[in-house]
Design a protein that fits this description.
Length: 102
């Protein structure tokens, strides 16, 4: 009989809102609202709801798929950009330069 693990695999998954990662969900909704505001400013406000649905539906579908493929998507996306600081050459933790990305 297999012994129970000390760390449960379900506790290692990040918090989700209806299956979507919160930061990614917020990003999709902000982009949808900005496109709606843009249509109103352009004077075609009667189409704003269609534009929001046209932007939000594919965005939410992408967010759901990306979140299922990589559960830690928002953590990887946010921390990797900060960690490397957009440097052209990456320094390994041992201190040597990465020769493949020069």
């Amino acid at each position: 009989m297999k012994a129970r693990a000390i760390i449960l695999p379900t506790t290692q998954l990040p918090f989700t809102v209806l299956g979507l990662l919160p930061k990614v969900l917020a990003l999709v909704l902000v982009v949808a609202c900005l496109t709606a505001a843009t249509t109103v400013m352009l004077g075609i406000g009667q189409f704003a709801m269609f534009v929001v649905l046209g932007v939000a539906a594919p965005g939410l579908a992408w967010a759901f798929r990306a979140g299922r493929a990589e559960p830690h998507l928002e953590s990887v996306f946010v921390t990797s950009l900060r960690f490397w600081n957009g440097k052209k050459t990456k320094t390994l933790l041992a201190g040597e330069k990465d020769e493949f990305h020069e």
